[in-house]
Amino acid sequence: MKIFTAAQVRAWDAATIDEQGISSLDLMERAAACCTEWLLHHCPPDAPFALFCGRGNNGGDGLAIVRQLLAAGRSVSVYVVQPGRAASPDFAANHTRLAASGISIGAVEEGAPLPGIPAGSVVVDALFGAGLNKPLEGVAAALTVALNDSGASIISIDLPSGLFMDRPSTTHAVIRATHTLTFGAPKLALLLQENAPFIGAVQVLGIGLSTRFAQETQSPYFYLTNKEAKARFRPRPRFAHKGSFGHLLLAAGARGKMGAALLAATAAARGGAGLLSCHIPRCGELVLQTALPEAMLATDACEDFLTELPADMDRYDVVAIGPGIGTSDPVAELLERYLQHSPGPMVLDADALNILAQHPYWLLRLPPGSILTPHPKEFDRLFGTHTSDFDRIRTALDQAAALKSAVLLKGHHTFVALPDGTGAFNSTGNPGMARGGSGDVLTGLLGALLAQGYSAADAALLGVYLHGAAGDSAAAAASAEAMLPSDLILHLGNAFRRLY
Ligand SMILES: NC(=O)C1=CN([C@@H]2O[C@H](COP(=O)(O)OP(=O)(O)OC[C@H]3O[C@@H](n4cnc5c(N)ncnc54)[C@H](O)[C@@H]3O)[C@@H](O)[C@H]2O)[C@@H](O)CC1
Ligand SMILES: [K+]
């Protein structure tokens, strides 16, 4: 599913109107009807609604929703912000229709007291949507703060008011929505971690926008859903043997961190690698051999951490390195040797990324077709401090192109920057995965997918999707609170089955 810019969203509306031979007012009525239906099904049946409308088409949506809620027999109050200002034609048309019903339309004016919100009300925010072009100020900003402080549930139409679609919004007043009902496709701003306080649960409402426009219009960003993951998945051929699925070398662990190695190794085994060898320090030999008999060991001479390259590196197709290795000087020197001698693409995670942050020029040795998996803090350590996620995703795309590799930015909607300049936001996963160990599972899985011959782009997209899907399956079984990263591994089978 493509993610469009504000300009493209406007063009999408226009293309729909043109293609379907309808008016913009008809499309507004349709969008409002989808919102009204959602409100009627998801809000308490006796809750009064309080709608706050701007003077553009987002406000026009709000006025149409008021009319539809009244027709459904619901109790509704409605306020227009700065009613003296110029209005869009579709707002004006809906205002005339609503006024004819006899309902009193309140005003929120500069300098006048703000209306109170009756207890138990559901607030519907239709102040500004995709047309926002400057930060909220004056009475709109004051109203936003008051609504946020009211404690009421706030349902934002299309976007939380004050939230820019394509640029940072973290320094000014923005509605803190409980739910955002957005039209057509998720918008970039709704997928970024920094906007989490504003967007609440996002619901994408299909309002019948042109599918041809969506197919034909290019966008650098897409939403990674089951459809996109399925398109990249290759079921195992019937006559395959273990040699068909590659040999992964996983370098992981140190004393006290063998859990990270075991999680990554088990995920690699379940992720489908034909052969798995683990380069681990001596102290981990017993635990790994016992817990994962499927793995072969390339045990380091050192008891407590990794120090030397395994012999015969050419035996391996892919190297995954990082979970639990630590950042001491000998380990850092070893990472440099791994970068020099890796026989194929690499997955770099956790401490490997922290070491690289100290030696950024080593990145030049990264084999093309590799995958880097930083979370935002590791990302900033590696590529410099960023003040917003918009900047981070641009850097991720630049780095992915320069390194000819996939660069992840892990988060609720993990961003996958691909070497061809496009990037995907993942649709799977849940807060139960925000735990130490989840990243180790992802590293093993990504290594296994690369070993099976997937390109960096396909392995990164599939791996991130499967990891989240396994998390969703684990949360369904054990709850987001009680699930463990090791449950992700047990649920990888359910995740793979979603791709058949
Ligand atoms: N175009 C269409 O056919 C459809 C549009 N829809 C709705 O229309 C919305 C976009 O409508 P508009 O383009 O009219 O824009 P908005 O309603 O978001 O904003 C209205 C106008 O307010 C002004 N404005 C922007 N920022 C401001 C600020 N900080 N303070 C004061 N004034 C400000 C601008 O002139 C802007 O055009 C979408 O988000 C969606 O809710 C839906 O009805 C679906 C169909
Ligand atoms: K809004």
UniProtKB/TrEMBL annotation:
<feature type="binding site">
    <location>
        <position position="440"/>
    </location>
    <ligand>
        <name>(6S)-NADPHX</name>
    </ligand>
</feature>
<feature type="binding site">
    <location>
        <begin position="57"/>
        <end position="61"/>
    </location>
    <ligand>
        <name>(6S)-NADPHX</name>
    </ligand>
</feature>
<protein>
    <recommendedName>
        <fullName>Bifunctional NAD(P)H-hydrate repair enzyme</fullName>
        <ecNumber>4.2.1.136</ecNumber>
        <ecNumber>5.1.99.6</ecNumber>
    </recommendedName>
</protein>
<comment type="function">
    <text>Bifunctional enzyme that catalyzes the epimerization of the S- and R-forms of NAD(P)HX and the dehydration of the S-form of NAD(P)HX at the expense of ADP, which is converted to AMP. This allows the repair of both epimers of NAD(P)HX, a damaged form of NAD(P)H that is a result of enzymatic or heat-dependent hydration.</text>
</comment>
<keyword id="KW-0456">Lyase</keyword>
<dbReference type="InterPro" id="IPR036652">
    <property type="entry name" value="YjeF_N_dom_sf"/>
</dbReference>
<keyword id="KW-0511">Multifunctional enzyme</keyword>
<keyword id="KW-0413">Isomerase</keyword>
<keyword id="KW-0520">NAD</keyword>
<feature type="binding site">
    <location>
        <position position="439"/>
    </location>
    <ligand>
        <name>AMP</name>
    </ligand>
</feature>
<dbReference type="InterPro" id="IPR017953">
    <property type="entry name" value="Carbohydrate_kinase_pred_CS"/>
</dbReference>
<comment type="function">
    <text>Catalyzes the epimerization of the S- and R-forms of NAD(P)HX, a damaged form of NAD(P)H that is a result of enzymatic or heat-dependent hydration. This is a prerequisite for the S-specific NAD(P)H-hydrate dehydratase to allow the repair of both epimers of NAD(P)HX.</text>
</comment>
<keyword id="KW-0479">Metal-binding</keyword>
<dbReference type="Pfam" id="PF03853">
    <property type="entry name" value="YjeF_N"/>
</dbReference>
<dbReference type="InterPro" id="IPR000631">
    <property type="entry name" value="CARKD"/>
</dbReference>
<comment type="similarity">
    <text>In the C-terminal section; belongs to the NnrD/CARKD family.</text>
</comment>
<comment type="subunit">
    <text>Homotetramer.</text>
</comment>
<dbReference type="InterPro" id="IPR029056">
    <property type="entry name" value="Ribokinase-like"/>
</dbReference>
<feature type="binding site">
    <location>
        <position position="260"/>
    </location>
    <ligand>
        <name>(6S)-NADPHX</name>
    </ligand>
</feature>
<dbReference type="InterPro" id="IPR004443">
    <property type="entry name" value="YjeF_N_dom"/>
</dbReference>
<feature type="binding site">
    <location>
        <position position="58"/>
    </location>
    <ligand>
        <name>K(+)</name>
    </ligand>
</feature>
<feature type="binding site">
    <location>
        <position position="324"/>
    </location>
    <ligand>
        <name>(6S)-NADPHX</name>
    </ligand>
</feature>
<dbReference type="Pfam" id="PF01256">
    <property type="entry name" value="Carb_kinase"/>
</dbReference>
<keyword id="KW-0630">Potassium</keyword>
<keyword id="KW-0067">ATP-binding</keyword>
<keyword id="KW-0547">Nucleotide-binding</keyword>
<feature type="binding site">
    <location>
        <begin position="410"/>
        <end position="414"/>
    </location>
    <ligand>
        <name>AMP</name>
    </ligand>
</feature>
<dbReference type="InterPro" id="IPR030677">
    <property type="entry name" value="Nnr"/>
</dbReference>
<feature type="binding site">
    <location>
        <position position="158"/>
    </location>
    <ligand>
        <name>(6S)-NADPHX</name>
    </ligand>
</feature>
<feature type="binding site">
    <location>
        <begin position="129"/>
        <end position="135"/>
    </location>
    <ligand>
        <name>(6S)-NADPHX</name>
    </ligand>
</feature>
<feature type="domain" description="YjeF C-terminal">
    <location>
        <begin position="225"/>
        <end position="499"/>
    </location>
</feature>
<keyword id="KW-0521">NADP</keyword>
<feature type="binding site">
    <location>
        <position position="375"/>
    </location>
    <ligand>
        <name>(6S)-NADPHX</name>
    </ligand>
</feature>
<feature type="domain" description="YjeF N-terminal">
    <location>
        <begin position="9"/>
        <end position="215"/>
    </location>
</feature>
<feature type="binding site">
    <location>
        <position position="161"/>
    </location>
    <ligand>
        <name>K(+)</name>
    </ligand>
</feature>
<feature type="binding site">
    <location>
        <position position="125"/>
    </location>
    <ligand>
        <name>K(+)</name>
    </ligand>
</feature>
<comment type="similarity">
    <text>In the N-terminal section; belongs to the NnrE/AIBP family.</text>
</comment>
